[in-house]
Amino acid sequence: MKSMTKLMVVAMLLVAALVVAPAAARTVVSGDTVFIGEKNVNLNQVFNGTDVEGAGAGGVLVYYSSVTGGAADRTGTIQKSIPVNNPDKFELTATDFGSLTGQWYAFNKSSGLNYAVLGDSFGSVLVQKPTVNLDVKLAKGGEVLTDSVNGKSVTRNGQIAFELEHNLGIEGTPFKIDIEVTTPSGGKLTTFGEDLKSIKLENQKVTKGPISLEGREAGTYSAIAKWPSSSDFYDKGYNSNTVTFEVLTKKIAISSNKDSVVRGNNFVVTITGESKTNYYVYIKDASIGDKEYPLILDGQPGVNTSTVEDNLPTADLEKLSAKYPTVEVGAVTKALAGTIANVSTKADGTRTLEFNTTGDTDDRQFTIRVEEPGKPTNYDDVKVRVEEGDVTITASGTGVYYLGEEITLSGTCTDNKDWVYLFLTGPNLPTAGVKLEGTMEKVENGTDSDAAFTREKVEADDTWSFKWNTADIDRSLDAGGYTIYAVSKPRDKDALSQAKYATVAVQLKTGFLTATSSGAKIAKGDDLKITGTAMGDPDNVYVWIFGKNRQVLGDSATVEADGSFEYELKGGETKDWSAGQYFAVVQHPMMDGKQGIRADKEKRILYGIPGSGIAAEGINIGRLQASDAATALIQALDSPNIDDTYVKLTFDVEEPYIFIDPIGDKEAGSKFTITGTTNVAVGDKLIIDVTSAAFGPTKKTEASGFGAVSGNVVVEKGDGANKWSFEVDASDLKPDQYIVKVECIETDTTATANFNLVEAVETTPTAEVTTTAPAGEVTTTAPAGETTTEPTPTPGFGALVALAGLGAVAFLVLRRD
User: Fold this and answer.
1) pLDDT at 491
2) Are 603 and 586 in contact (CB under 8 A)?
3) Which of 101, 104, 114, 732 has the most CB atoms lying inside 10 A of its own CB?
4) Could you give the C-alpha distances from 547 to 511, 544, 601, in angstroms and in order?
């Protein structure tokens, strides 16, 4: 018994000795790879050429930041050097080497070695960090596939394998690593179908598996390759990356990224099943029209619709658990293209399919099924509801427009991602509606083309916009109220129940024209302006003028954005016009924007657009008198075949004149105004000169006898003739006769007049009146300018005698009569 006890103690001591015994040193030679973190590396051969312990005293490892020169005389810039005092058991610590991986050169302790000269080194080692990359691969039938399932899912009846890729695969490697798997419940395993401990890293890739997942707990697993505690790299940060994979319990499943979708938008379903396995995905029959189903987009990876369309897998299709949409092709019943597909899953057992919906897709709930071929009980469903979208429309502006204007129609369409369909209804139009362009033909219900409807593209953000230029249509619209329809499908007014739509009401008015000249009378040489308003958004109006020696035949005037226009002839152009009456016509092209009546290049012949009723040779108005030429133009414009409208104007051209009103004598030093009338245009400038008429020698000691005042005035509108006025300040003028000269540069017109400037009359102040009262009476002095009131004296005797004598004479006279 004691002997047995002794044996057990000895055995335990031997085990303990094995545990604590240091690992044998790894011997390397010059050029070998060593790894940061390694312990007990024998560098004797690198420094001394022998691996005998203690054969040399080591030396220095040198790392160069740069090396220059040829193979025989290379030199380097030393970045770092590390002393190696014990080459028998050297440790490559991260503290010493840091991130300086690459070639390190060994210099032993021989005398005369120059560390900067690479040729003096005895050998070198390649220093690297140990790297291990872990991946989890799909396996099938005992074979490891190339598909990674890291971050993906696999089913419980599938297989996986762990793959290690590293840089430690050297011959006779001592490096071993463990793979640790964490289960969904948190357990740590180093046995997972296979023993994952102490995996020897021999080749660059090491695979452990295939490993069956049969009976495994459902959920997410993770795995990491760790260096064991016995490894030189333990707990030094050199473990591998972490991988994850999910184990599913359900054999087959399908899900959608949307529970409901507005038609015109797409949705995506994802199926989950066995890895690299074929399944059928199809829409269950809904007993609706062929175009009313969502359709599987063509060209998706792993999604094959062509074999189904060709009716090749008939046997399998007949075994499907639910009815799918079909179509009759001749005498053969086939699956409706786009509603069923043969789908192959990826390595992770998943595959996505995108379905397209259009404005024709029925607004209802659809059931989409994934099913394993030949196993009708192995399926899963997902339901997706397709909903109606909406359409909106608005018109720019106030809703009231002139025929010929451009109207911007805009809105949104969520019921059709491709097009919105537009048509118009209103007075004298077909009740079903007409296009907005060209001849505005009746729309063709159900026909999806530009010929049948006015179509506008719907943008990615569901918006649309259409510019309706009412001047570009070839149909004459009446003034009145119209309705514009925006529809999600090519449906006319009688079939709007089949689509989503919106309307906007517009009032269309015929264009109109107003015009006026700058005056009923103008002076030769004055500017002539014809201004007005042309509604209906024409680009131009056209001005015609007929006079005795002048014709203006259809000159264009630009119409501004607010409808205003201005046509101007400068004074230099009217200077040579004959005096007399002139006729003007302003022509509006109206709705079609075309000048219905125009003159030829020589400005002599009137032509009309086709259908105007004017003969091909035109009307020669160049030889007609002014009134006759104007009449010929108006008669042409009045043709029922011409939509142009016009305004007639008349004005008189007169010889220019300036009148100066009588001035009369004016006092020196006063201020007064000189006035007059003229027929030159309002706004013209008149130059006024007031100069002395005196002429004669003056003495040098005397101031000059001449005086003058000058200035400019602007002609103003008067009640009849235009008027002007000029204020004269005569404070610096001497009494004399003066000449007034009034001149208009524009019309080259002058007028003169004279007036006298006389000495101012001095006003004599009123003297005070003093009354001397008789003795005993009061004397009253009246202030200057006031009247003194004296008491009336009583007549004395002498006065009475005199009065009596006058009375006698009067009596005698009366008696004589």
Assistant:
1) 95
2) no
3) 104
4) 29, 10, 20
